[in-house]
Automatic annotation (TrEMBL):
Gene3D superfamilies associated with the record: 3.60.21.10
TM regions (residue ranges): none
Calcineurin-like phosphoesterase domain sequence ranges: 4-152
Keyword Metal-binding set for record: yes
Protein name per the record: Phosphoesterase
Organism (species): Microbacterium invictum
Highest taxon of the lineage: Bacteria
Enzyme Commission number, as recorded: 3.1.4.-
EC top class, as a word: hydrolase
KW Cytoplasm (keyword) present: no
Cofactors, names only: a divalent metal cation
Classification of source organism: Bacteria, Bacillati, Actinomycetota, Actinomycetes, Micrococcales
NCBIfam families assigned: yfcE
Keywords of the record: Metal-binding
Amino acid sequence: MPTRLLLISDTHIPGRARTLPAAVRREADAADLIVHAGDWVSVAVVDDLQGHGEVLGVYGNNDGTDLRQRLPEFAERTIEGVRLGVVHETGDAKGREKRMTLRYPGLDVLVFGHSHIPWDSTTETGLRLLNPGSPTDRRRQPHHTLMTAVLDDGSLRQVTLKAL
């Protein structure tokens, strides 16, 4: 049975927005699993997203004690035969593929955040690295963004970067 994913990160609420954008809520309602790669800033965002579906998330560098007590620094789950990991920071873009391959050798997909810059690459070993950007703080990017994807029968499919 295919599993639809919503991938988001770096919501920075209430610093960058008062609430989650309506587009994020719509995508959350359509997803089977919401994956958040950290920098929520407010625990209310976790509660909000959990009202829309199941959440797999981690804390980021801007998250306080309340979020760090509730969420791990790294999360992993096997879904539809795909080993999915989530972490906030992966370091500099230069050398990222090699570092993440060494750090997470058993993963098929790693979702990360921190930079607010969308990223989609595949390492030499087949590890797919995905950063959905930010739906609330685009920084130097032209748009606020999120990603959707489908896990089905042991593979990641239909990865789509969506501008808000």
